[in-house]
Specification:
By secondary structure, this protein is α/β, with parallel strands linked by helices. It folds into five domains: 136 residues, no CATH class; 135 residues, 3-Layer(aba) Sandwich (Rossmann fold); 149 residues; 210 residues, Class I glutamine amidotransferase (GATase) domain (Rossmann fold), CATH 3.40.50.880; 235 residues, Domain of unknown function DUF4159 (Rossmann fold). It is 29% helix and 18% strand. About 6% of the residues have low confidence.
């Protein structure tokens, strides 16, 4: 039954409103109790003359109050719902819920979760089992079937991933599960974007003859992604894409950020009507372009709108080639001498081992240089020439210098920017009428536009270019008489440049000037690396650790536990859960692994042919509100007002002369009546001597429980809980200890004294604990508790031990506010190494990092106490080996995260390390006292 935006779960109860007239009639005939008065003869007689002693009916306002209270109770029993949602028609004995949680689902993920929760709630109302699968999770992830509560918990724990969806693999798993649930309903909550293999995936999913299909896609696809970002000659050019079918024009703004997150450039992207691509250019000085670390589109909170940059904007590899033999006696006359001195500070220089061009050029190209400098190279062999042309077309930068050999060679249109005249031009010689020419202002269209022309440089000899219609556009530097000094031109994706002078100081003094260094540096910076940080100079395969990852919402964050080292050098590496988009490497050099490639397109997802009834729905929050609770609360309030009114009309509040004791009795009656009314509508009653938190305290001390700090990051907290759960199971199997379920604690609010040890995973993105929270931790450690800090960054610190990782820096900030005792790595003879298992080290998901504990005060006295420790237990432990990552197990008991390196025994030793830590915390240094057993027995014998 619906009335405007109101519905009722039991509309038949509304017939009870017809009893309101009867209630009104009864209330009219039931006046309140007469007022009691002490017998003062004269005063009561005076009052009798003025008014009646007993009213014959209730006051109208009291009657109205009671009628309203009865109406509220009737309405509450009818279970009204404001703005009710329409329940989906139930069909089938099960519900298969398949949700896209790839990068495109990040902007409206909350809305998708709310939609899925409605479906799960409707299934739970009828006890229907739920299959729950996500298309951007690992193929072996558990999909159910679950009950409604378990499915809802799993849904809320899942987050979007910055990776593409894998519909074929996930749909195949759901289809296999539907073999045991024939006739189930299938709900597809898609992100609206088509992907490769969709046709076969939907055919597999819907080929199981579902009883009903629920189809949900976004109403409007407004996603914009970045597919390319290149440092071009004229500026930094970016390319954006959007889904097809968008006829309306659109503008977006992209920003460039440095490695500290500061915005240093902007570009406007304009999509024409009906166009799926748009380009923009950031025309800023190349010094700023070299600082670009990432580019993102404003307002697009997903991984596809962010592009990270790598070595293409940093140091370049430059190949040097010359046909002249090096003269060791006269190095200043070597063609490459000044080029070497100019490029060494900011480029990696490589030279071939063979002077033969047929072998030298392939050797240089095999090392994937960003730029090749050829000093007076004439004719090039055909095979090497074709390879060189292909390298330039694919983005290489070729810089050539003139000389006698080049002047004698024929024109090579592919490897020269302009056509050259035969021979040379001499200026200022004995047989010349002209003077050596200075360099004039650099053209504004060239890469040297912002450089000041060198006033001390003159040219006495040069090779002239043939005058053509485009000679002005190809001129990067001129002499005073208008003849070109440096020319350049684009060749496909690459660039060819020519200095019309020799690289040594024979034709001009430019090579010995500071301008020569700046001009070469400018050309190197404008080139593009052909190799990457993932491949060495010889092109071998390299493995890079995760450095900074792109989250699903487009933010840059530290690596997640799922991220694995990237192996590159054997072709393009796909974006997966193990290799999410981001930067791989170290601070010394990184490799950019972006989500969208240069050939990526965004196409809308078309609904396939479905051989079953289809119900379309939209993503939306559940805006329905249950009014039963507010109505019951209002009825209780009116009941309390009615009780107070009756007491007041009975004169209970007017007789203040009866003293304080009588007033206290009245208040007790009022409170008792209110308590009776509340108890009638409450399912439980609390004892008057109980206090909030008593039940939790009793539950916490009833069994030993391991605790972990809630960081606020769902993925980190989930791994911590799963890790302590796995360790608890291992303790039950191997020891007499039977701990309870792990407890997540908020160090700012929760009581910490209930737990013997607290595991604290350091998350650099989490907020810094407050001073009160750190004081609580300090008090907990001083009162006998132990905190196990885990920075989980052993792999990073192992790569670059010279600098602290963000997690280690955050730990230092926390420890600065704590009373931390002197620390040392666990010695070989410490009680921790033998509290249960005999262990030489304490590995976790990573190995190699030490476990830091409180330093022993009497460590040097090895004769008196071979097992080192004091009388207490270390209040602090620090590791970087990611203990929880090694202990973490899923619902089936399988490990959730791989060890690094992948070693089965490393996980076993990690569990044993956890057992030793727990036993050490619970039993102290009891094993250190065993060394005195012979002495005690000897005394007993005496």
């Amino acid at each position: 039954m619906n009335w405007l935006a109101l519905s009722f779960g039991f509309p038949a109860i509304l017939w009870g409103l017809l009893a309101l007239p009867v209630i009104w009639w009864l209330l009219r005939l039931t006046p309140p109790k007469p007022q009691m008065e002490v017998f003062p003869p004269l005063k009561i007689l005076a009052r009798v003359l003025k008014r009646e002693e007993t009213p014959h009916q209730s006051p109208w306002w009291l009657t109205l109050l009671r009628l309203l209270m009865a109406a509220l109770i009737v309405l509450a029993l009818a279970e009204p719902v404001f703005n009710p949602r329409e329940r989906l028609p139930a069909a089938g004995d099960a519900l298969a819920l398949v949700i896209d949680n790839g990068w495109a689902s990040a902007p409206d993920w909350d809305r998708r979760v709310a939609t899925a929760e409605r479906l799960i709630t409707d299934a739970g109302a009828t006890g229907t089992p739920v299959l729950l699968a996500f298309t951007a999770e690992k193929p072996n992830a558990e999909i159910g079937p679950f009950d409604a509560q378990a499915a809802r918990d799993r849904l809320r724990a899942t987050q979007p991933r910055p990776v593409p969806t894998d519909r074929p693999a996930i749909y195949a798993r759901v289809a296999a599960a539907l073999d045991t649930l024939p006739g189930a309903s299938v709900a597809v909550l898609a992100d609206g974007l088509a992907a490769q293999g969709d046709e076969a995936a939907f055919e597999t999913l819907f080929g199981k003859a579902p009883a009903q299909v629920i189809w949900a896609v976004p109403e409007r696809l407004a996603t914009i992604g970045l597919s390319a970002a290149e440092n071009q000659l004229e500026g930094f050019e970016i390319t954006a894409i959007r889904p097809g079918g968008n006829a309306a024009p659109r503008q977006a703004t992209a920003g460039a950020f440095d490695d500290k997150g500061r915005r240093i450039a902007d570009a406007t992207l304009t999509f024409a009507a009906g166009k799926e691509t748009a380009t923009g250019r950031m025309q800023v000085p190349f010094e700023l372009r070299n600082d670009f670390a990432s580019i993102s589109i404003d307002g697009e909170s997903h991984a596809g709108a962010v592009r990270v940059l790598d070595e293409n904007s940093k140091r370049r590899r430059v190949g040097l080639l010359s046909q002249a033999e090096a003269d060791q006696a006269q190095p200043l006359l070597s063609p490459l001498y000044y080029i070497l001195r100019a490029l060494e500070p900011f480029a990696d220089l490589v030279e071939p081992s063979n002077a033969d061009l047929a072998d030298a050029i392939p050797q240089l190209l095999a090392q994937k240089p960003a730029m090749i400098v050829m000093a007076d190279v004439g004719n090039i062999p055909d095979t090497a020439r074709r390879q060189l042309i292909e390298w330039v077309d694919n983005g290489g930068t070729l810089v050539r210098f003139a000389g006698p050999r080049l002047a004698a060679a024929g024109n090579d249109e592919e490897l020269l920017p302009v056509r050259l005249r035969t021979g040379e031009r001499s200026l200022g010689g004995a047989l010349s009428w002209t003077e050596p020419q200075p360099v004039t202002e650099f053209p504004s269209t060239g890469p040297f536009a912002d450089l000041a022309p060198p006033s001390e440089v003159t040219v006495s000899r040069q090779i002239l270019a043939e005058p053509t219609a485009d000679i002005v556009d190809r001129t990067w530097a001129n002499l005073a008489d208008g003849t070109p000094l440096v020319t350049g031109a684009r060749r496909e994706k690459g660039t060819v440049a020519l200095f019309h002078i020799t690289p040594e100081a024979t034709w001009s003094n430019l090579p010995i000037s500071g301008s020569f260094v700046e001009m070469l540096r400018r050309l190197v910076q404008l080139s593009r690396n052909q190799g990457t940080a993932a491949a060495g100079a010889d092109g071998r395969v390299a493995t890079l650790a995760p450095y900074r990852m792109i989250a699903a919402n487009g933010a840059l964050e530290p690596p997640t536990p799922d991220a694995r080292p990237l192996t590159s050098g054997q072709g393009p590496v796909p974006v997966t859960i193990e290799n999410p988009p981001g930067l791989y490497g170290t601070e010394e050099g990184v490799f950019a692994h972006n989500l969208l490639g240069a050939d990526a397109t965004l196409a809308p997802l078309a609904r396939p042919q479905i051989p079953a009834p289809v119900t379309e729905m939209r993503y939306a929050f559940d805006e329905s509100r249950d009014l039963k609770g507010p109505l019951v609360a209002a009825a209780l309030l009116l009941m309390l007002l009615d009780t107070l009114a009756v007491f007041w009309m009975g004169g209970m509040f007017a007789r203040r002369r009866r003293g304080l004791a009588h007033g206290a009795g009245t208040a007790a009656i009022v409170l008792l009546a209110a308590g009776i009314a509340l108890t009638a509508f409450s399912s439980t009653a609390q004892a008057q001597d109980s206090r909030p938190g008593d039940a939790e305290a009793i539950e916490a001390i009833a069994t030993t429980r391991l605790a972990y700090v809630l960081t606020g990051n769902p993925s980190v907290d989930a791994i911590s809980r799963a890790g302590l759960d796995g360790l608890s199971r291992f303790l039950i199997e191997k020891t007499a200890l039977e701990p309870g379920l792990p407890a997540g604690v908020d160090i700012a609010r929760d009581e910490l004294a209930f737990y013997p040890i607290i595991y604290w995973p350091i998350d650099p993105n989490a907020a810094m604990p407050s001073e009160d929270a750190i004081a609580r931790i300090d008090a907990y450690m001083q009162q006998g508790g132990t905190v196990l800090f885990d920075t989980r960054d052993q792999y990073a610190t192992g790569i670059d031990a010279g600098s602290a990782s963000p997690a280690t820096q955050r730990l230092r900030d926390i420890l600065d506010h704590l009373n931390v005792p002197p620390l040392e790595p666990v010695p070989e003879d410490h009680v921790l190494t033998k509290s249960f298992f005999i262990l030489p080290e304490f590995p976790g998901r990573f190995s190699g990092g030490p476990l830091w504990i409180e330093a022993s005060l009497d460590a040097s006295n090895v004769d008196n106490r071979p097992v080192r420790t004091g009388d207490g237990v270390s209040p602090i432990m620090i590791t970087a080996n990611d203990f929880a990552g090694a202990w973490a197990i899923d619902a089936s008991g399988a490990p959730m995260l791989p060890t690094v390196p992948s070693d089965f025994m490393q996980r076993v030793y990690a569990y044993r390390a956890g057992v030793n830590i727990v036993m050490y915390m619970l039993t102290g240094n009891y094993k250190s006292d065993q060394v005195h057993v012979p002495i005690l027995l000897e005394r007993l014998g005496q």
